[in-house]
Amino acid sequence: MKTKLQNKIALNIIRIIAALVVVILLFLLGDILISGVPHISWHFLTSASQSFESGGGIGIQLFNSVYLLLLTLIISFPISLGAGIFLSEYAPKNLFTSIVRMAIEVLSSLPSVVVGLFGFLLFVVQFQMGFSILSGAIALTFFNLPLLTRNIEESLRAVPNLQREAGMSLGLSKWRTVTRVILPEALPGIITGVVLGAGRVFGEAAALIYTAGQSATNIDFGNWNPFNATSPLNLMRPAETLAVHIWKINSEGVMPDASAVSAGASAVLIIVVLLFNIFARIVGNSLYRKLTATK
Amino acid sequence: MDEFITTNDVHLYYGEKEALKGINLSFPAKGINALIGPSGCGKSTYLRILNRMNDLIPQATMTGSVKINGVDIYSPKTDTVDLRKKVGMVFQQPNPFPFSIYENVTYGLRIAGIKDKQVLDERVERSLKQAAVWDEVKDDLHKSALSLSGGQQQRVCIARVLAVQPDVILLDEPTSALDPVSSGLIEDMLLTIRDRYTIIIVTHNLQQASRISDRTAFFLNGELIEAGKTKSVFLNPQHQETDDYISGRFG
Q1: For this UniProt entry, which segments traverse the membrane (chain A) (predicted)?
Q2: For B1-5, B19-23, B164-168, B226-230, which range has the lowest pLDDT when averaged over its residues?
Q3: Percent of chain B having pLDDT more than 70?
Q4: Pick from B52, B65, B23: which is nearest to B170 by CA?
């Protein structure tokens, strides 16, 4: 009787904790969305922000966030793919491998504000890149690299060894077994990880304040020459992102509708991150079904 | 006997443990050879020596010589990729790639650079027919191989090996994860291709060994106890251990 009771109590405590997590999440989401969504309009999403007057939007910040995210992925994905393949398929058990692993662990536990300050000192100041999208993208790469590498390594590891043996026994070289058999099988997991990581990068502020900068210069969406200073694609222009914008409004915003803009921007940020999560699930599942055709 | 595969004084160590203690064994070209013995006797390890799959285990070291068709496959000049094209392998668990049946069977060929659709189609049909699974899958070759039953998957895996036209086919307990009907299909299929390939099959199923194999080798504790024509090994064993094992007194 006593063990039964214990079991019941333990189970209920665990249930309450799990429910608590859901409640906290729903409360947070609800609060942000209820106060923010009414401020979202087409005008809000597309127009430039205002420093002193009300009626400013977040158009440029939204574009900057997306552009910065794409750049970060373009830089960090190939590097972490290589590192992930090395760690999962090739790395021998030796000192070098454990140093690499430890480096990744340390890198992933660095506070993002430290990464930002490091990027500021090295890229912005030392390499004279200034507050720029490129500096921001490199800082975010540092931030994203360890997560992505570990995700790729784990996705590859999850592919059963039988598949490696099957490939090798058919006369595929190790490299071909990895790229033609193991990698396609791991792809759904990798894509899911990339998209989830993208959500984190999208919401990152601390690493960007000192690298991509806190000002959204006016950009001309009719000018797509990347070497032109007002072009949206220009790599060297300062680019305040959505998350940085929220932080800035709340710390030093003087526009009359600061709280409304902040609430609206927060809601947009949350919605985008949620979309990333849902998107990751859908893409991961459908890719898996497509590859394995288990309908 | 015309020897196609010869192994001389083969020792294999997993770290400190000696898994094979000096195996001298040879196989003629064509026909089915069964390797039998209790679990852990070294028969699977021995099988994996023949296409160098043991190379993949970092702490395994091997001494002795293995010649296939007169070529020392452990010489530094051997390209393991080429070797494994000539010496195909089927595993205990069916392990098709998570792609379509067609892609599974053509995988080795396309990697080898064959792109002609007609050649590929032809080879797919022939291999699947040889593996006795054609009639069951011919209408949906572009369905995922994972959607098939275990027995069908295993036959697709065999077709995948046959497609690259090896000389030798190694089978590591290919039917132990399958139901009796599927096992029977695979046994019948092996009998139809015995004239074209040198087949070496590891099996726990003594009836299977006696039904399909031409020659049998009995392993015990990393040693080869007895090898010869299946009939004589089963009906007239020369060693007490063999007699005890095949009559079910241990193992």
Answers
A1: 12-34, 66-87, 99-123, 129-148, 181-202, 260-280
A2: B1-5
A3: 99
A4: B52
Amino acid at A243: A
pLDDT at A295 over 60: no
| Ordered structural domains, chain B, with CATH | 3-246 (3.40.50.300)
Residue from B144, B160, B165, B200 whose CB has the most chain A CBs within 10 Å, to mutate: B144
Tell me the two tokens of residue A125: 């100041």
Closest residue in B to A161 (Cα) is B95
A40-292 adopts what CATH topology? MetI-like fold (1.10.3720)
Q: Does B201 contact chain A (CB < 8 Å)?
A: no
How close A160 gets to chain B, by Cα (Å)? 9
Q: Which of residues 125-184 of A touch B (CB under 8 A)?
A: 160, 162-173, 176, 180-181, 184
Distance, in angstroms, between A166 CA and closest chain B CA?
7
φ, ψ for residue A203, nearest 5 deg: -90, 0
Q: How many CB atoms sit inside 10 A of residue A11's CB?
A: 10
Write the pLDDT tens digit of every residue in A172-189. Answer: 888 988 988 898 889 888
Across the interface, do A168 and B53 touch by the CB < 8 Å criterion? yes
Taking contacts as CB-CB distances below 8 angstroms, the residues of chain B near A92 are: 58
Q: What is the mean pLDDT of residues A216-240?
A: 79
Chain B residues with CB-CB distance to A171 below 8 A? 81-85, 108, 111-112, 164
pLDDT single digits (tens) A140-179? 998 899 999 999 999 999 999 889 988 888 888 889 889 8
Answer whether A115's CB lies under 8 Å from A207's CB. yes
Tell me: the pLDDT tens digits for A89-122? 998 888 999 999 999 999 888 888 998 999 999 9
Q: What string of DSSP letters covers A76-126?
A: HHHHHHHHHHIIIII--SSHHHHHHHHHHHHHHHS-HHHHHHHHIIIIIII
Provide the 10 A C-beta neighbour count for residue B120. 17
pLDDT number for residue A238: 84
Measured between CB atoms, does A31 come within 8 Å of chain B? no
How far A280 CA sits from the closest chain B CA (Å)? 21
